[in-house]
Amino acid sequence: MIKNEAVRDHLILEDQQEEACGVFGIYSNDPDFEAATLTYLGLYALQHRGQESAGIVVSDGQHLAVHKNLGLVSHVFNRDILEQLKGRIGIGHVRYSTTGSSLFANAQPLAARCSRGMMAVAHNGNLVNTESLRIRLQNEGSVFQTTTDTEVIINLIARHSRDSLPNAIIKATAELKGSYSSLIMTKDTLIGVRDPYGVRPMCLGKLSNAYILASESCVFSSIGARFIRDVEPGEIIFIDNDGVRSYHLPKVNRRALCVFEYIYFARPDSNIDGINVHLARKAMGNELAKLFKGEADVVIPVPDTGVSTAVGFAETSGIPYDIGLIKNTYVGRTFIQPHQELRDLGVRIKLNPVESVLRGKRVVIIDDTIVRGTTSGKIIHLLRDAGAKEVHMCVSAPPITHPCYYGIDTSVRKELIASSHSIEEIRRYIGADSLTYLNMEGLLQAMVPKEELCLACFNGEYPIEIQDEHNDKYLLEER
Questions:
Q1: Burial of residue 241, with CB atoms counted within 10 A of its CB: 0-12 exposed, 13-18 middle, 19 or more buried
Q2: pLDDT tens-digit profile of 388-410?
Q3: Hey, what's the torsion of the CAs at 337, 330, 57, 194, to 10 degrees?
């Protein structure tokens, strides 16, 4: 979670849910293989999952080399830097901070030296027992250089250095509670780990004779690789000179893939656990259209995540689909406005209305979520200024009433507008002529298999027990 509320209030899209991170790893036995370049391209394909920092660690089989910094992938790396990162094994990371502040020290992958040699870790997710593990490890002599839960993982693995590497990782991950799709790299091995609930995605692919692990399958088509399969919840995949082998953590009673991977986070061309993201969003639009009771002349999306849903909505409702907002892709998500007057222009900098599409029209606008309501209100005001006669807001998710502890930067519960306001009150607050949320029945109808999703943001039913004291305090105070 971002702790600095002053900074949070200055973000352009301050009421949007922010992504989990993205990870990419590649292994080849070819000593001339350019792992850094392929990792760079893989991170480019995952840039939507995090824009705060980017990093790559490579190994030539003997030594690890690392480069990371704050900023976008294209800002952190250039040709000269990539040419210096010589190695046939690589892991990379793009980050949005869900635990730990946005500092250079927290940029990933994290690399550290332990008794078994150099090791690097890239982590996507959020541990719910970080503080208790950190305190225990500090009491046992561990020294921490960052505020991320990723460093806890490294220290736990190092604690079991007398075991074989597979046993050390199995013992370390057995102590982790929460969500994690993580990559671990030694000088000669690439390891992928997905938590037993499968909250965050991970998949396996192949490019010629090189194996790849990545957060999303869209990476494979982007670099000309072949998708093999999803990494199973609780699976640990080892890739080394002997090939690919799997180990499994103890099974839990259910799966709990974050439903927001389909609603918002993942790229529409990705397939996650057998479901195509675009088709899932389109099905959400089909279901959302069945709930809309008004009349309209045009359906428009909030780009980019609203596009697939708007297509499905138009298909079912019969209301024509069009582009009513143009997104300026060169404005980053962490673009901070220093003054109130500029903050008020934030949405206009990010989104520009197409007046000829909107003027005099009854407009349905499709968005993925309403978190605090501030951006939705600004967008609706923008459409009215462009001449829209009516603006009907339709949201492709149920109201978000509970915070997430598994890797999404949602506000504390008191800042989630749906936790304390009725739909009618939210409609008045954002200034829409009508407001329609996709209900839980419609969401589950659009998703298959529906019993394998985490829906805690909507119903407060957390699949993984929240163990740290500060998290328990949140739950007790906010229920």
A1: exposed
A2: 999 999 999 999 999 988 877 65
A3: 90
DSSP H or E run through 366: strand 362-367
**Fold of the domain built from segment(s) 5-258:** Glutamine Phosphoribosylpyrophosphate, subunit 1, domain 1 (3.60.20)
Structure tokens at 150: 């990723």
Please choose, from the candidates 183, 181, 244, 182, the residue with its C-alpha nearest in 3D space to the C-alpha of residue 209.
Answer: 244
- The two tokens of residue 371 are 């978190």
CA angle (29 as vertex; 45, 75 as ends), nearest 5: 30
Protein fold of 277-447: Rossmann fold (3.40.50)
pLDDT of 347 higher than 90: no
pLDDT of residue 383: 97
Cis peptide before 109 (omega within 30 of 0): yes
Rounded-to-integer distance, Cα 199 and Cα 124, Å = 10
Measured CA angle at 44 (ends 80, 280), to 5 deg: 175
Alpha-carbon radius of gyration of the chain: 22
457 catalytic, yes or no?
Answer: no
Share of the chain residues as helix, strand and coil, in percent rounded to the nearest 5: 35, 25, 40
Is the alpha carbon torsion for 420, 425, 430, 432 positive or negative? positive
Active-site residue among 21, 203, 394, 404? Answer: 21
Q: What is the pTM of this model?
A: 0.88
List of residues 6+ apart from 6 with CB closer than 8 A:
none
Q: Checking DSSP bridges between strand 226-230 and strand 351-353, what pairing results, if any?
A: unpaired
Residue ranges of domains in the chain:
5-258, 277-447
Burial string for 383-419 (b: 16+ CB within 10 Å, else e) reads bbebebebbbbbbbbbbbbbbbbbbbbbbebebbbbb
Q: Is pLDDT above 80 for 4?
A: no
